[in-house]
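User: I want to check something. If I give you two sequences, will you return the structure for each one separately, not as a complex?

Assistant: Yes, each is folded on its own. Here is the first sequence with its structure:
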Amino acid sequence: MQIKATAVADGSADTETSGTKTPAQSPAEHPAVAQFDPKQSTLTQVAVVQSPVTRSDVEASAPAQDSPLGANDQIAVGQDLTRGPATAIAAGVRDGSLTATEVVEATVARIVAEHRNTNAFSVIRTEKARSEAAALEQRADLDVLPLAGVPIAIKHNIAVAGETMRSGSAATDARPVADDHAVVRRLRAAGAVIVGLTTVPELGLWGTTDTPDRITGNPWNVARSAGGSSGGAAAAVAAGLVPIAHGNDGLGSLRIPAACCGVFGIKPGRYTVPAEIGVDSWSGMIENGVLATTVGDAALALSVLAARPDLAEVDPPGRLRIGLAVAPPYRFFRVDRQWTNAARTAASVAAAAGHLVEPTTLPYGDALISIFLRWLAFGARDAAVLPNPERLQPRTRRHLALGRLVQRLRLVRPAQVDRVEARLLEYFERYDVVITPTLAGPPPKARAWHHRGWLANVLASSRFSPFTPLWNLVGWPAASIPMGMHADVGTPVAAQLAGPPGSESTLLRLSAQLESLHPWRRTIN
């Protein structure tokens, strides 16, 4: 198959590459697990069905690189030094059984060899990552760094010194930024090495990840989207290219791709991790978080981002009161039964672990209307400072025009959030955690969604992800945890865990417990 490759607009030259895509491996079989039946209040045994994975031709292009590829890029191909988990990599670098340079060489070589399967990366930091790994090895505190030598990818919408911050858009500034974002500084201080920047749809507004240069496919079935807007991050982790990736979450844009790609992802609550995204982080609706192949890796990375070492501890929690809420926010949203079963499976595993689990209904009220209005209005605020707004995609221009209308009519009011939060606070007087499906259906097809109209994009996103935005509206923590595979589509299914402010540790500890009782295949490779 011939793959025409076009570099992103950050100064790199066009290239042309030919190659053959190979079929992905089939997911590993999971044993039967206990299923919680809220109608019968009993546990029954159900098998999680796996199906073969298919690959289809998708649009592909080469990510920008900070230098041409050399012979050393291929040296470590096939080595497993950086498949993770990140905790093992860091332990090896700390005790001297690995070096940061070895890890980075293996990681960069793997990304170069495999990234076109999914188009997860927009920039590969080949030479810069090598230099940073060599510098890391000279640090006097290497033996105590929590992320010593761990290769990490950063979503291409926050600042990494010396790199562009394109946010998936030709309308943004093409010049490199001078300083790191706060979370990047914390990752570097902890010993992480930034190996690349991951693909993001324009301005992070959309629930699928594609740009004029590339379509990011799902590693388990590249005919399907990796989700968005942290789709590149999730695809990079699920494909085994990096053990941990940074992402951020505005309406579920970290949890959505985590669920699509079968990795663990967590969005912390407001003020836990520095946000500093766009003009005002969508008035506090966007948070920086992490995606990883294991809960332990995600907890470690989040503890660094939050400057809270306690978050890295994932011992089992005490007995929790858990609500299982599988009904969608509105009746006109249809929920795929296999996604409903993902939530029920998580609930059954939690019940088997000794937690009190009962069926319940979340008090959504009119929350989604408030969310939709904010999505329109806050995107318009960010677009107002773009240097080249005439280069925006048509779907985005329509979106921003509607956002300006929402602003003029003053349809966004603080009281809307206050009502929703009051209902949720009352709900969580009875529960510590709520479990829902992460999504309502499989990921959409991997296609050039940026060529399609605004309404088509809105309908595609809202139909498969109605469960995630509530927690952005109120700024509370939420996570997505893999719970098997979709028998028809061959992509993962997942459950969402959410809790009140300050419950990040509870969600991580419960997730780790569920992972130990119901493990998943960490990566496609």
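And separately, the second sequence with its own structure:
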Amino acid sequence: MTTTLVIAEKKEAAKSIAQALSPQFTEKEGYIQGSNNLIFTWASGHLVEIKSPEEMNKEWGEWAWDTLPMIPENIQLKAKPKVKKQLDIIQKLEKQASVIVNAADSGTEGEVIFNFIAIYLRFNKPIYRLWTSSLQPGAIQKAYKELKPASAYNALKQAGFSRAISDWIIGLNATRALTLAAGGKIIHAGRVQTPVLALVYDRHKERSLFKKMKFYPLLATFSQGTEKYQGYFAGDHIINLDEAKSITAQINAKQGTITDIKEEQKKTPPPLLMDLTDLSRIANQKYSYTAIKTLEIVQSLYLKKYVTYPRTGSRYTTADEIPLMHNSFDVLKNQFPKLATNGDKGLVNVANTRIVNPKKVVDHHALLPEPVIATNLSKEEENIYMIIVERFFTQFQKSMEFIQTKIKTEIQGYNFESTYKQPLSLGWTAIINSEDDENDTKESNDFTGIPKLIKGGVSCEDVEIEEKETSAPAAYTDGSLIQMMSNISNKISDPILKAKLKDCGIGTSATRATIIKKLIDTEYLAYEKKSITITNKGINVIEILRTTNISLLTSPELTAEWEKELEQVRNGKSSKPFMDGIKKFANLIVDEAKKLNLDSNDFTQNYGKCPKCGKNILKNKKSYYCSGYNEGCKFFIWSNQYNKNITPKMMEQLLLKGKTNILSFSSKNETKSSFKAKLILPENLDGGRLELEFGAKK
């Protein structure tokens, strides 16, 4: 009798698969005993990982130049200690089974998780792959009927292995080499995280070097018979007020000519379906959720079977998902009557290329709501769910239609332009607020209502001189940084390289949030409200690397090219050229690092000067403290007080001014209301505790 062992990535997924495939089942410790000779278990994420250097080679245990570069001939694996019990259960069940089914999450990461286990435990049974984007029973049953041999996914497995091994080789060699160059001060570097740090560095430099400049747009009011219309000066920015006044004096109350009128009927289609990048962007914009927070919430919705697989990088579907979308519309329309108003299922069809595009569906289709009523959601889950649901319902709406009229007016040798828009049909914009969508059509200089005009003479009745300032590039947020990582070609000016890397990104949809979190945790980046800023420590890493021949380690373009090569491995190309390039680059990193002589103080993040002794303030997990503690300085401040995390910005204010700006506090006890106050640094700081100042003005 054939016994089949189904291995999922998480317990919740294993239970959903058991419910779909087994009429009866019994939950046991570490697995589920099903009927029909089926057994279900789970990996709890990564149970097996690549060994540390010293575990592969005793000589690598010493951080020394003669041990570098560390390039193992064969990657060795080990069990993660805290989850070894679950690994032992899988090993015991595998011995009972005749067939193994890999039911890990359907993607590169899932392939790595399962196959690391299979290699470590030396599976020797036939292995099949269950591939699904949904945990709904029907989708699981369909996927089970269509099981393929694991060998059908060998290319995906090799791409996953190449990614994991290359990250190990570059990350550990770069970190050790730079750390040795800095006299032992740990400097973290990596194949992906360092280029992402460089993106934030470059934006920081743009902002710090930016100088605001005033300019003076001219808004003229013209008349033709009884019709009046307005237009903006069409030349370069006027940066001299006297010049603006001079032009105003020349054209005010003078005659001009309408030289061109162009009227077009236009459409703005609904925004594309959602992928994880777009979800992260909007969640950050609307609710200030970090990328890792959004991922945690949407993963919870997936495991509750309310949405399809979330770690997707696609905003399209295949034809197979059209029935699912129709079904979800029918199930959800009564729950969301406003969103379903005038919804037309006929618009969601296989011929709609803004929805169906198989070439752009790699591992998974776009993120969709499942055809079930979502209940018992937390507020955060509800917020994320509604972003997905709103985007979904827009697909059943027509395009927004409007008439756009562009008018060109010439007067005294100066040109003015006017753009008027008149809505014809609100379409999808009637059911949602479009402010968060990239297809938003509002422009600051557009006028509403279309005047009835003809080419010919006009009079200038008035000219208004407006005053505006140029704006610095916006600091990155979680959302905008994730978006830049997902399509790095937006940053590239070289047209050949830009075309080559089109739609290519840094990292994957599954890893980008984790990359940002790691840079925050290592104090290379920091949050300042919603913005992501780079610390002095992070600045020094990038600036030093860019003085060397390994400056390519800071290059987002190189990383994107590597991602392109990994994509080719996924499509069946040998991984050897990619790995050979990685090993060669690891050698270069070590050779270049040996030439450096770094000051370890450059890589210590400090938060100001100690008010007691003047030495640098440092930070650990629980407090800010004085670097002179070995010399007897006892100054420290707990980093969480009054249920509030003390941010570096707050610490700066405390050390410079003795108090913060007014802050909002919330109580752990939900029955108590929140309050506002300033944090005060008392003269006689006792036990690291700050004081509160109520009723203070900003």
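Because they were folded independently, the notes below concern the second chain alone. The chain has 20 helices and 28 strands. The two ends are 76 Å apart (CA to CA).
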